[in-house]
Amino acid sequence: MKVINITIKQTANGADYKACELDQEVLGSKYFNVFQFHSLYPEVEKGAEFPDVAFEKDGKFINLKDGNAPKKSGNKGFAQKIVSENVKVAQDNKAEAIKIASTARMATDIVVAHGYNLDETKTKWKEWRSWFWNNWEMTQDDIMKSPPFDPNEAFNKL
């Protein structure tokens, strides 16, 4: 099989590939594409010759076989599901880590601002941390409707 025409085209993501025409049909078509990642990409030029056994059919497409390419697996959907689950777990872990760090920081800010003595600090820090954890989803408006502290107490300390 001899390559009689080559057109350089681009995939949707901008990668170049060669759209090739053969002088005779192989596996029901005279056309095949060769992508940049193919080990023979540089060798596919006008006039290049390949035996008919060098081609394989992949669905409706004819490809040039690549002995250096990784073997395809029928588990693509399964692998995508595993990756998707791992991403979800990582995102959940990240959200949990942010919640842990933020509630601890907020409790520390409140306890330091109030100026409790050492014994009170430990107890109050745990109370505030628990309150922030349990009310994580509250908006500022929700907090203003029922604050977790007596606003007068805070102003009397000023």
Q: What structural class do you assign from the helix and strand content? A: alpha+beta
Low-pLDDT runs of 5+ residues are none
- The geometry reads as rod-shaped
Cα radius of gyration in angstroms:
33 Å
Q: Total number of β-strand segments? A: 5
Give the neighbour order of strands across the main sheet: 1-2-3
Number of domains: 2
**Terminal Cα span:** 90 Å
Question: Helical percent range?
Answer: 40-55%
Mean pLDDT across all residues, rounded? 81
Content of β-strand: 15-25%
Main beta sheet, described?
A: 3 strands, antiparallel
Order of helices and strands: EEEEEHHHH
- The total count of helices amounts to 4
Descriptive notes:
This protein has 158 residues and is of the alpha+beta class. The chain has two domains: 3-64, no CATH class; 76-156, no CATH class. Helices cover 43% and strands 22% of the residues. The chain contains four helices and five strands. A three-stranded antiparallel β-sheet has the order 1-2-3, with no helix packed on it. A two-stranded antiparallel sheet has the order 4-5. Helix 1 packs antiparallel against helix 2. It starts with a strand and ends with a helix. The model has no long low-confidence stretch (mean pLDDT 81).
Short description:
With 158 residues, the chain is an alpha+beta fold. It has helices at residues 76-114, 118-134, 140-145, 151-156; strands at 3-10, 16-26, 29-35, 55-58, 61-64. A three-stranded antiparallel sheet has the order 1-2-3, with no helix packed on it. A two-stranded antiparallel ribbon has the order 4-5.
